[in-house]
Design a protein that fits this description.
Blueprint lengths: L1 E6 L4 E7 L9 E6 L20 E5 L3 H13 L3 E5 L5 H8 L3 E5 L7 H10 L8 E5 L4 H9 L4 E4 L4 H12 L2
Parallel strand pairs: 4-5, 4-6, 6-7, 7-8
Antiparallel strand pairs: 1-2, 2-3
Length: 172
């Protein structure tokens, strides 16, 4: 997948994702909000002011996972991205992220199951978990919070809200 980032205004960018596959699907344009501290600067994940704070992302949709990773890197975090719930607990043990973003609806091991496993483990239970989903009804929120999730965000995720929520959760 190739990404092209285009400045639309002082605070909006468009991310065009072109599939690198033989089918060459039509480009998809996605809109991101640029955090205030990055306006007027050219920033890549490699040149972003890194805080050293790792954030693990478990998201099965490539575009959403890429947007989250780019946005977190631009905000100075170190994103660790996984395509599914499989392997999240092992990766959390190995990487020790400061916070975990979990999509609820993933094939195989879903976000609810991963959250349950993380919160049942005494070594990992203190790591904040934010669940994300397109199904934003009260039943989903209550189920996630009952499992020990620390927060819940509905998709589409406003990156400004996500960054502020992460900073508040981590005190940075």
């Amino acid at each position: 997948m190739r990404h092209t980032i285009v400045l639309l205004s002082a605070s909006l960018i468009a991310l065009t994702a072109n599939a690198a596959s033989a089918q060459n699907a039509a480009p998809r344009n996605l809109i991101l909000f640029v955090p205030d501290g990055l306006r007027g600067r050219i920033v890549t994940p490699q040149t972003a002011p890194a805080t050293g704070i790792k954030i693990l992302i478990a998201e099965d949709h490539d575009d959403q996972r890429n947007i989250l990773g780019i946005s977190l890197a631009h905000a100075g975090f170190l994103p660790i991205a996984l395509r599914s719930g499989e392997g999240v607990v092992d990766r959390v043990r190995a990487e020790r992220p400061a916070l975990i973003l979990l999509d609820i609806a993933m094939p195989g091991l879903d976000g609810y199951s991963v959250c349950r496993l993380l919160k049942a483990d005494p070594e990992l239970s203190a790591i904040p978990v934010i669940l994300t989903t397109t199904a934003a009804n009260v039943r989903h929120r209550v189920a996630g919070l009952a499992l020990g999730a620390d927060d819940f965000l509905s998709k589409p995720i406003d990156m400004r809200e996500l960054i502020l929520l992460i900073r508040r959760r981590l005190g940075c």
